[in-house]
Amino acid sequence: MNETNQAAPSGEIDWGVLRAAALSAVENAYVPYSKFPVGVAALVTDGRIISGCNVENASYGLTLCAECGLVSTLHATGGGQLVAFSCVDGHGNTLMPCGRCRQLLFEHAVPGMQLETVSGIRTIEEVIPDAFGPRTLAEYSGS
Ligand code: THU
Known about the structure:
Elements: H1 15-26, E1 38-44, E2 49-53, H2 66-76, E3 82-89, H3 99-108, E4 109-117, E5 120-123, H4 124-127, H5 134-142
Parallel strand pairs: 3-4
Antiparallel strand pairs: 1-2, 1-3, 4-5
Tetrahydrodeoxyuridine (THU) binds near residues 36, 56 and 63.
């Protein structure tokens, strides 16, 4: 559950700043196997900008998507929730996060978190409808 139940701010998101942070992060991707670097960045509720890149592994299935690094950084640098999110490939093209990473982001997103996607700005609820999440567990335990 989003602890503060804080909605995404109605003000404009500076997508240029987020994209620049994602483009900076993608330079650090470790992708010797896929050669497909990914960089992500997000605006946090307290105003900070965090980022991440994918880190692959010789045991392919252990690969960490860029979003994994971002969520780890979110908590390692003070917590909070994600307000807006951007994901790019090595050419700077916008990417849609994979399904697993949409679930990962959902856990830490404010309601209405905005994503820059291949089909424009979407909310987290639009890209993972009827999501299984913390509220599902809370409702179950309360029933
Ligand atoms: N990848 C990400 O980092 N995030 C996504 O949302 C999609 C996929 C990475 C994993 C792997 O290192 C590479 O992209 C190719 O699948």
